[in-house]
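Input sequence (283 aa), recorded before submission:
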Amino acid sequence: MKNEEKKVDFKKIGKAFLCIGFGTGIGLIVYGIFLYFRIAIFGWNLGLIFAPLAAGYAETMIENRIIGKNLGATSAFILFIYTTFYSFILKNPTLGMNIITAGSIIVILQAAFPTLVNYLLLVVLGALASNLAWAIRKLIKFLKKVKYNIRWETPQEGMPIEPIPQFNEVDSNDKLNSLNFFFLTSTDMKDRSHDLLGMYQSEIVIENKDEISIKREQIEEKRLVCIKNGKDDCLIKLANKIKADGGNGVLDLDIKYGLIGLGSDNIHITATGMGINIHSEKR
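Predicted structure, token format:
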């Protein structure tokens, strides 16, 4: 049995050379246009980028129509060699390496070797960027942990320790009751005769900084005490505003808490409600 030799498809080869020639011709025309109109940046002609891209695109387009598949942007490689020789060696051998030149080489290589360059850019550089981002996150987490441990380090002997303030519920109630003022969260006075004075608001800002002179487990306790005292001060401030206008109570009382500042280093407390003057007699 004789082995049949594969026949060379000269027709297909001719079509391939035709496509390559067509793409090369388009690239040369584009490069000539850029040279003729001197479309350049800092003496560097943009045709170095667009000519290989145009050649590769034109070749790919005609290959898909004539042959039915893409054989590779050979014309882009030809334009890469020609434009590099013409611009960097023949016409301007002293052109130095700069960011524009480096960028042009990358773009031209991408047009000539798209698969290889895309692999390097997407896979290799992507993996490097991902690993770098992971390392940076780990470093930031480590530095935060070190800073946290240093901040909450047990105070040394002889270092003055700030006492933790205590909140007394009895004193708080007595202080608010001594105002002779009605704090009501309800929106309806029912059968009590009263006059509406309008909406009132008061606000208090207290510090929310971390102290190194107290232990870590005590910081939340101190912050809670500061919030409770701030709430009382905010209510007293609201009551004084309404009393100055002849009122003796607040209706639909609403108290809100929030953090303000770039580092959330302040606690913002607001109290709002409808100021009223409650009459002693019923309706």
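Checked by second reader. The first helix runs from residue 10 to 36.
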